């Protein structure tokens, strides 16, 4: 089947829209959105970059115990809120991850197979897919709805659709967070992922006073590879991570490109256009 959309669309006909009000980013060697933009511009990692995120929303003891996936999700979520000048407690949130914390899932499976009575209660409660969303609502004191989404390589696209739908339903702004960590053990064979990656957006309603690039998105049929090329430096740097499909969007934001396509599952892609300031 050929694509149903062959020309870019703008304005109301482009489906769901938002203003990108704030951005957060973390990967090893690029611990901020400023560092990611510098890498896109000049190809250099940040000097003395930390090896692990240290989310300041959590108390020191919780910060040390939190899994890497939770740490990176909270780090980029707070950075996006600060970039937008938004109170984290005021925003509904959408957390999108292909696998959640697959290293903890591997630990759980191995321990249940060998010594089930020794399983760690702390690691058990961190194994659920909405662990990052739960830590966020506690750390930020957020009483607004929090959604956790998993759709394999389509996770970020589906999270973006959910966030845009919430804006269309009347929310002034929504926090969207994408993240994934490394796979370990036998699960690497069926759910491969390397490294640690997180990125976040605060998306505001187009009728608000928000400033930033305007994003428009709509679903389209996928006929082989997306017609709009997605190559970029961030995408090329993090190819082994399960969350890498989202990086086409962040490459576009960093480079000023205006079109991209994200895998959206079941023979569908999410086309995205930007109108940059």
Structural commentary:
The chain has a single domain, classed as Peroxisomal Thiolase, Chain A, domain 1 (3-Layer(aba) Sandwich). Residues 1-13 have low confidence and may be disordered. It has an 8-stranded mixed beta sheet with strand order 3-2-4-5-1-6-8-7, sandwiched between helices. A hairpin with a 2-residue loop joins β7 (259-265) and β8. The chain is an alpha+beta fold and 277 residues long. It has 10 helices and 8 strands. The protein is globular, with a radius of gyration of 18 Å. It has helices at 33-42, 60-65, 68-84, 102-114, 121-125, 131-140, 155-168, 187-190, 233-237, 247-255; strands spanning 16-27, 93-96, 146-149, 173-180, 197-204, 214-221, 259-265, 268-275. InterPro entries: Ketoacyl_synth_N, Thiolase-like. This is Beta-ketoacyl synthase chain length factor. Residues 44-63 are annotated as: Disordered.
> How many domain units?
1
The CATH topology turns out to be Peroxisomal Thiolase, Chain A, domain 1
Task: Quote the distance from N terminus to C terminus.
Answer: 36 Å
In the CATH hierarchy, the architecture is 3-Layer(aba) Sandwich
Strand content: 15-25%
Overall 3D geometry? globular
How would you spell out the order of helices and strands? Answer: EHHHEHHHEHEHEEHHEE
Total of helices: 10
């Amino acid at each position: 089947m050929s694509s149903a959309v062959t020309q870019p669309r703008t304005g109301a006909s482009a489906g769901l829209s938002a203003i990108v009000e704030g951005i957060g980013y973390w990967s090893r060697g690029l611990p901020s959105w400023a560092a990611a933009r510098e890498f896109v511009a000049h190809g250099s990692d940040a000097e003395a970059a930390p090896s692990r995120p240290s989310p300041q929303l959590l108390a020191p003891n919780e910060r040390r115990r939190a899994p890497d996936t939770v740490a990176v999700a909270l780090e980029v979520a707070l950075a996006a809120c600060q970039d937008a000048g938004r109170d984290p407690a005021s925003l509904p949130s959408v957390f999108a991850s292909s696998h959640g914390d697959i290293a903890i899932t591997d630990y759980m499976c191995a321990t249940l197979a060998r010594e089930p009575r020794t399983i760690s209660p702390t690691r058990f409660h961190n194994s659920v897919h909405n662990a990052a969303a739960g830590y966020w609502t506690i750390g930020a004191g957020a009483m607004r709805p929090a959604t956790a989404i998993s759709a394999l390589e389509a996770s970020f696209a589906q999270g973006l659709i959910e966030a845009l739908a919430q804006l269309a339903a009347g929310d002034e702004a929504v926090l969207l967070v994408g993240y994934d960590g490394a796979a370990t053990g036998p699960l690497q064979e069926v759910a491969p992922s390397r490294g640690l990656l997180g990125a976040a957006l605060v998306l505001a309603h187009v009728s608000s006073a928000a400033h930033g690039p305007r994003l428009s998105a709509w679903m389209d049929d996928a006929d082989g590879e997306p017609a709009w090329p997605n190559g970029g430096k961030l995408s090329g740097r993090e190819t082994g991570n399960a969350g890498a499909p989202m990086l086409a969007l962040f490459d576009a934001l960093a480079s000023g490109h205006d079109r991209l396509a994200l895998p959206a599952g079941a023979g569908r892609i999410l086309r995205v256009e930007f109108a940059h300031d």
